[in-house]
Write a structure and sequence with these properties.
Chain lengths: 359, 437
């Protein structure tokens, strides 16, 4: 399959798709698919930060820093718009820097999703937010075809169903794929159209079924598995990530199916049924319960908290989560990292020590 | 038991504490204050401010069991809680106090010892440090029955209050205010009104009191008047020389943050306003030789207020405006006793930190013009991302569009460990040179 840049370019030139740069994390991708937009998520572009430092303080996380750098290096010229979901204070303000201060001549959209603890008003509001987003997009992209939306919502559910199968097999130790391969494939969903992502997942599922290697199982929590070397290191040690609690993976990909006929209702139902997440202000108890359930299902011996430095939403929950896990004899490892930085020798040693502890 | 505690609370509030404080005032040995020559005479209202805030904190010891106790974020619509007679405690205000008394860092360290990263907001770390250690310069904090947060100032408070809810095992109410990226839509207002209405049964249950609409309206009226008066207090600094400095205003802010909606806050600001108006009439300035007028951006560096105040005053520079102190005067005029819920939604969702950066720039532009500002000092606060992200661009824009020079101080609100004396001195010297050129 073509590389990310080539693929995106082809989708635009050959299929006439509009391209939108999407900042993390939760957004209704089905609406964009239905409006002939290819959402291209911006999590960790492989760049060296040069220009973004003139706009952001050193204490801002590397997801925000790299996303801004991508724009400042002129690598978003081919895009037709940006979408900023309301994820955290830094992305909130980044949206305004890009839209109000940088003179970027592209439409910028903002998507606010209600925060927990949810009430009846939250559901009504989320539905209105979806329709409001459509109304704003229509001004740029033309009217939404409701049958397309219905189709894309079903397709989204199909993607989630296959992903769930993959995750279930992994939990049961019945997926042969290495950690690196698993996340390489899963993360392709950050830019592939569902028309291509779905067959890729199905092919992977068919090929990777089989007994996993016999090393200890762990769960990875945090934002995203970057740098990839952490996955390779775990593979080399024989440690299997049996499940994850990663923001850019299971927390937003394992969307429970909805039986609602109306696509907006279906999207709303799914949003409120998704796994607990810091970006939705889920309570600490919900996160503890979710993590403990994952540990139990996968028989994990430990949890790796793989933190992006300065990520407040994640860092606030860590002491409670590690406390509850340790009370139950589950080992924990906390890693604080900057994206795209090579694994230091010291970090590799810590991971190896952790491996010995859980073996 | 409740009855006894309630009587004790009222006795202490109305008689016991005021008498105690009068007594301690009288017995305090008065050391003659060394008056710095660059400052005008100190404000006499400051004494009254100290009394009010000391009484508020002392009263917290009698609140448990007598009053429902709520811990509240500084931007939450407390007016609704006042209608149920909650005793309200503001951890952010307490964090500022710890910072000012230079105990912020050691309380942060307690939280860090429990696994909270040093990169988290220091108000949050201080508060968690107090929860874990029980240590506080005010003696003791009242245990909450309820946590009340709004994300109109930051998302951080919600992460922090979730930890508190887990620690204290008490309910958390969130007032979720959609960010104003371009405009606040009708659906945003309905969502916020819906939430306020949904809070009422929870508040009735926690407080054991029925919702009293009339009382609610009275509170809204008091809050609005107090905020408007606070706005007038700030506006006195348009005069030349300004009768107080923003560093004074950082202190005088406490009642509008912590006691908003209570008569004591309104009464206090009336007294303060009178004094300031009088100074303006008599031409008494906060500093004796006001040559340059500055604006401050972001929360104070609480452990350096006095030091910075002296450094600027020595050069005839007075701070006459701040985006921070202005926040409690800016949107409260939306409050309307005839439409309390809608007006609360508007007033609280349009505050500076829930608004796009264009709004912030326009606000600063207006303050520069109205207050005759010659220069800007930007505190890039490591703790506070919503306030700090975007400041570098604002600095550039203010210079390009208005020709206003500025300096960025990289520091923190309450954790003095991240303050670099050396870096600050170098930057300020360059700024002073530019201002004096
Ligand atoms: S300092 Fe900033 S991040 Fe901390 S509580 Fe206040 S507004 Fe929120």
């Amino acid at each position: 399959m073509a590389k990310r840049e080539e693929y995106i370019d082809k989708e635009k030139k050959e299929k006439g798709k509009k391209l939108f740069g999407i900042f993390p994390a939760q957004y209704p991708r089905e609406i964009l698919w239905a409006m002939n937009v290819l959402p291209v998520e911006i999590w960790d572009p492989p760049l060296e930060v040069i220009h973004a430092n003139a706009h952001l303080q050193p204490y801002i996380c590397s997801v925000v820093r790299l996303g801004l750098e991508l724009i400042l290096q002129g690598k978003c010229e081919g895009l037709d718009g940006f979408l900023f979901p309301h994820t955290c204070d830094s992305i909130q303000n980044l949206s305004s820097i890009v839209s109000d201060y940088l003179g970027v001549k592209k439409p910028c959209y903002f998507f606010y999703h209600p925060k927990s603890p949810y009430q009846d008003s939250s559901r009504v509001y989320y539905l209105e937010q979806l329709k409001g987003l459509v109304a704003r997009l229509e001004k740029q992209l033309g009217p939404l075809d409701s049958s397309q939306l219905k189709h894309r919502v079903q397709q989204g559910q199909e993607v989630a169903r296959v992903l769930k199968q993959l995750y279930d097999l992994r939990v049961q130790g019945e997926l042969e794929a290495s950690n690196a391969d698993f996340y390489r494939v899963v993360r392709r969903g950050e830019y592939l159209s569902p028309d291509d992502f779905l067959p890729l997942l199905e092919e992977f599922l068919a090929a990777a079924k089989g007994s996993a290697q016999g090393g200890p199982a762990v769960i990875m929590s945090g934002v995203l598995p970057n740098p990839k070397e952490i996955l390779t290191l775990l593979d080399e040690l024989g440690v299997r990530i049996a499940h994850d609690d990663l923001l850019n993976c299971s927390r937003r990909l394992l969307v429970p199916p909805s039986r609602a006929d109306d696509p907006f209702e279906a999207l709303t139902e799914s949003y409120f049924a998704m796994p607990p997440c810091t970006t939705k202000d889920s309570s600490v108890s919900e996160r503890v319960d979710d993590l403990l359930a994952k540990v139990e299902q996968s028989n994990a011996k430990g949890v790796i908290f793989y933190m992006v430095k300065f990520c407040e939403p994640e860092l606030f929950d860590v002491p409670q989560l590690t406390g509850e896990l340790r009370k139950r004899g589950v080992a924990t490892l906390l890693i604080d990292c900057e994206l795209n930085q090579n694994l230091s020798g010291q970090l590799a040693t810590r991971v190896e020590a952790f491996f010995e502890m859980i073996s | 038991m409740y009855l006894i505690k309630n009587l004790q609370y009222h006795f202490m509030k109305d008689l016991g504490l005021p008498a105690l404080m009068r007594f301690s005032q009288r017995t305090k040995k008065r050391r003659p204050k060394k008056l710095d020559t660059c400052f005008g005479p100190p404000l006499t209202s400051t004494g009254r401010l100290k009394e009010i805030m000391t009484r508020h904190y002392l009263l917290s010891r009698y609140a448990e069991g007598a009053r429902p106790v709520a811990w509240v974020t500084s931007g939450a619509p407390v007016e609704l809680l006042r209608a149920f007679e909650f005793y309200t405690f503001y951890p952010e205000n307490h964090g500022a106090l710890c910072g000012a008394q230079k105990v912020g860092s050691e309380l942060c360290e307690v939280a860090e010892g429990k696994g909270y990263s040093q990169d988290l907001c220091s108000y949050a770390r201080i508060d968690l440090g107090v929860c874990f250690s029980g240590r506080t310069p005010v003696g003791k904090l009242p245990k909450p029955d309820l946590l009340f947060a709004s994300n109109n100032i930051c998302q951080t408070v919600v992460y922090w209050y979730k930890v508190l809810a887990y620690h204290w095992k008490v309910p958390l109410i969130l007032f979720d205010t959609p960010y104003n990226f371009k405009d606040i839509a009708d659906s945003d207002i309905s969502y916020m009104v819906g939430q306020l209405e949904e809070m009422i049964p929870v508040l009735e249950e926690v407080s054991g009191k029925e919702f009293n609409y009339q009382r609610f309206q009275d509170v809204i009226r008091l809050a609005k008047e107090a905020s408007l008066t606070w706005g007038e207090v700030l506006a006195t600094m348009k005069a030349r020389p300004a009768p107080m400095t923003i560093f004074d205003a950082f202190g005088h802010l406490a009642p509008i943050v912590s006691l908003r909606g209570l008569p004591v806050a309104l009464n206090y600001y009336r007294v303060l306003l009178n004094e300031l108006n009088d100074r303006v009439k008599k031409g008494i300035g906060a500093i004796t030789d006001e040559r340059k007028r500055l604006m401050w951006d972001n929360i104070a560096i609480w452990y350096k207020v006095r030091d910075l105040s002296n450094r600027f005053a020595e050069r005839g520079m007075n701070f006459v405006a701040a985006t921070y102190t202005n926040a409690w005067a800016e949107t409260i005029s939306y409050l309307d006793i005839n439409h309390p819920f809608e007006s609360l939604a508007k007033a609280y969702s349009l505050v500076i930190l829930n608004n796009n950066l264009n709004h912030r720039f326009e606000l600063m532009e207006r303050l520069v013009k109205e207050y005759g500002v010659d220069g800007l000092v930007i505190h890039s606060a490591r703790s506070c991302k919503p306030y700090s992200v975007g400041q570098y661009d604002i600095k550039r824009l203010l210079m390009d569009r208005l020709g206003v020079p500025s300096v960025v101080i990289e520091a923190d609100i309450a954790d003095s460990r991240v303050f670099s004396e050396e870096q600050t001195r170098t930057r300020l010297e360059a700024f002073f040179e530019a201002m004096e050129a």
